[in-house]
Amino acid sequence: MRTQLALSALFVGLASAADSVAKSIYAVDAIKAIMPNAKTTCSPTDQCRTPEQAAPFLIKSLERRTTGEIAMVLSLIGLESVDLQYKVNTRNDDQGTANMMMAPYVKEYAEFLQLPIDGKSGADILQLVIANDFYNFNSAVWFMEKHCSDDIKAKMKKGTDEGYELYLTKCIQTTVSEERQAYWKRAKEFFNLAGK
C-alpha cells in the first residue's frame, strides 16, 4: 500500500528508458481513473490532450511530490480542464492552462517563464504559455508553490481531506463543490489515500 508521505512511483525521476515506459503506463492509469472522460485521440493542434499525451509532462511536473500533492493537483487539473479537453476557457480567451488560471496569474507565470510578453494582450500571453505542453501542465504546480502558504502545503503533502479543502478554499479561492469532491474521491481511491 502506498504511504501518504512516500514519493509515488508514478512521478519519481526517470532513471532509464525501461523505467520511463513503466512509469508512463502507471501515470496513464492514474489520469484515466481520475479523469474518466478524457479523450482517446487529440492532434497536437487540438486543445485537448489524451492521458497518454499528458502523462510525460505530468510526470516531469510532479516528480519529487508526495502522493497527496499529486492526487490534489491531478484532481484540480481534471476538473478545470474538463478531463484534459480544454486549455483555454471557452467564454474567456485570456483564462486557461491545465488548471484554468485567471489572466493575472497567466501573466505572472509567463513572466516567471521569461516569455516575451511585452505589449501583448492577455489572450496572446496565454497562447504563448500553452504553446508548450510542459508549461501548460506545470502551471498547476507553479501556482501551488507560489500561492499556497507553507502551512497549507504541509497539509497537502499528507493527502488529507483538510489539506484538499484548504488547497481549494485558501489557495485556489474556490468552494468545495460536489463536482470537485468527485475528482478528489477518485484520486484518493486510486492512490489509496484515507483522507484523514
Précis, in short:
57% of the residues lie in helices and 4% in strands.
List the helices and strands and how they pair.
Blueprint: H1 17-34, H2 51-62, H3 67-80, E1 88-89, E2 92-96, H4 103-112, H5 122-130, H6 133-147, H7 150-157, H8 161-171, H9 178-191
Antiparallel strand pairs: 1-2
Helix pairs in contact: 1-2, 2-6, 3-9, 4-5, 7-8
Report on the structure:
The chain is mainly alpha-helical. It has a single domain, classed as Lysozyme (Orthogonal Bundle). Helix content is 57%, strand content 4%. Strands 1-2 form a two-stranded antiparallel ribbon. The longest helix has 18 residues, at 17-34. 41% of the residues are buried. Mean pLDDT is 90; it is low at 1-18.
CATH class designation: Mainly Alpha
Say how many strands there are.
2
Output the strand order for the largest sheet.
1-2
Span between N and C termini? 16 Å
What general outline do the C-alpha atoms trace?
Answer: globular
CATH architectural grouping: Orthogonal Bundle
Q: Would you give the CATH topology?
A: Lysozyme
Oligomer: single chain
Strand content: under 5%
- SSE string: HHHEEHHHHHH
Rg, rounded, reads 16 Å
Structural class: mainly alpha
Largest sheet: 2 strands, antiparallel
Poorly predicted runs of 5 or more residues: 1-18
Q: How many DSSP helices?
A: 9
Q: How many structural domains in the coordinates? A: 1
Mean pLDDT: 90
User: What is the share of helical residues?
Assistant: 55-70%
Keywords: Signal
Signal peptide: 1-17
